[in-house]
């Protein structure tokens, strides 16, 4: 016997001998009237599988309830959703490189965290490499978020922005070769030198390329 909570039929739960009793049926109907309104809102209680469908106000409230201290209401809605989805795991791994990487991924979309021994820096420093366009506001924002999830002793050295630039190169070359040259040093003597003289030139051209940070 199936029954949906948004459309309860409490009378069906009664023993058969009670279903025809007027008082019991009235009581069952009263129970239905009490259960139906909140029961129709049960779907709204589903959160984790509905994050991609929540609007910004609901996301902000959820982030407040979950106490995500690196969450900001000025984030884009996509960043808000990713931040909420990864919040529990980040809290569990707070103070680790992985937690910092997740925050960087949420803010920048892409990014790599390298610790000091991976690139030859002083102990406990780390840097971030990303291809995201950097602005002063974005830099300060990611610094603030990272401060809340990194361990206390680690320090952010820098954020490096890498850009891949693709262009065409054209090369032109020329070679002139001579096998025998006579060199006259005086009217009485003539000296001959056998050898090669190679002259080369190279020109390359490329379209104008502008790289903007």
Write a compact overview of the structure shown.
The protein is an alpha+beta fold.
Describe the structure.
There is one protein chain. With 213 residues, this protein is of the alpha+beta class. The protein has 3 domains: 36 residues; 111 residues, no CATH class; 36 residues, no CATH class. 36% of the residues lie in helices and 16% in strands. A 3-stranded mixed beta sheet has the order 1-2-3. Strands 4-7 form a two-stranded antiparallel sheet. A two-stranded antiparallel sheet has the order 5-6. Helix 7 links the parallel strand 2 and strand 3. Helix 3 runs parallel beside helix 4 and helix 4 packs antiparallel against helix 5. It starts with 21 loop residues before the first helix and ends in an 8-residue tail after the last strand.
Which structural class matches the secondary elements? alpha+beta
Main beta sheet strand tally, sense and closure: 3 strands, mixed
Helix content: 25-40%
Widest β-sheet, arrangement of strands = 1-2-3
Report the order of strands and helices.
HHHHHEHEHEEEEE
